[in-house]
Amino acid sequence: MQLGRVLAQARKLMEQTVRPGETVVDATAGNGHDTLFLAELAGPGGHVLAFDIQQEALDSTRIRLGALAGRADLILDSHDRVADYTEGPVGGAMFNLGFLPNVGDRSVITQPDTTVSAVHNVLGLLKKGGLITVCVYDGHEGGDRERDALLAYASRLPEADVDVARYELVNQKGHPPFLVAFEKKKEFKEPILLD
After folding, report:
1. Pairing state between β 126-136 and 178-184
2. Is residue 191 part of a domain?
3. To bridge 79 with a disulfide, which of 27, 41, 55, 190 should be the other Cys (CB 3.0-4.6 Å)?
4. Is 159 helix (H, G, I), strand (E, B) or coil?
């Protein structure tokens, strides 16, 4: 694994967490790379809920899934509505913030309020020991606001409930992506936030 690849690190963490047969979430389906990875990881008895607000992302994801399309629900909705589609438990969830690469409208981006709400809602659905990975891309317009909102939320989570880690390269120029990982330490439906 190359040190600078946050997506590879996110997948490595998921491989250590998700078990065959579990329900998992791709909170930002995009071009379907994580949806396919999660469908393979969860196995024939598992299921992926893949969210995106752009139909072209879901169309791309469906094509990428190919024969594994039956393992995933492709949901044209905001990721913060995850609790409308499952009661849990969820084994793990992956987020890639920003815009749909290569084919998407770059003015359509993930937003601070729905991203924080989605992470919060998934935390409530996670199994004990479940994991959320968030790849943060903050070099585009609005990315800094989303980054700051996510990190502010993460810093308020009670350490008795959730471990939060940040993985990043510190010697890269510009705005290299970084990874924030949330691990649920005990059972709860919604984390209690500090004021």
Report:
1. antiparallel
2. no
3. 27
4. coil
The C-alpha R_g of the chain, in whole angstroms, comes to 15
The rounded distance, in Å, linking the Cα atoms of 193 and 73 is 31
In a domain, 75, yes or no: yes
Say how far apart CA 150 and CA 11 lie, in whole Å: 20
* pTM for this predicted structure: 0.91
Q: Quick: pLDDT tens for 70-101.
A: 999 999 999 999 999 999 999 999 998 876 56
Strands (E), 31-77: 47-52, 72-76
CA angle 193, 114, 141 (to 5 degrees): 115
Report the C-alpha gap between 32 and 40 in whole angstroms.
Answer: 12
Q: Which residues, listed in sequence order, are joined to residue 135 by a DSSP beta bridge? A: 96, 179
DSSP assignment of 136-191 equals: E--SSTTHHHHHHHHHHHHHHS-TTTEEEEEE--SS-SS---EEEEEEE-S--SSP
* CA distance readout (Å), 103 to 29, 89, 109: 13, 33, 13
Tally of structural domains, the chain:
1
Peptide bond into 158 cis (omega under 30): no
Tokens describing residue 80: 């913060």
Condensed to tens digits (0 to 9), the pLDDT of residues 148-166 reads: 899 999 999 999 999 999 9
> CB of 72 within 8 A of CB of 50?
yes
Q: How many residues can be counted in the chain?
A: 195
Q: Is 189 inside a domain boundary?
A: no
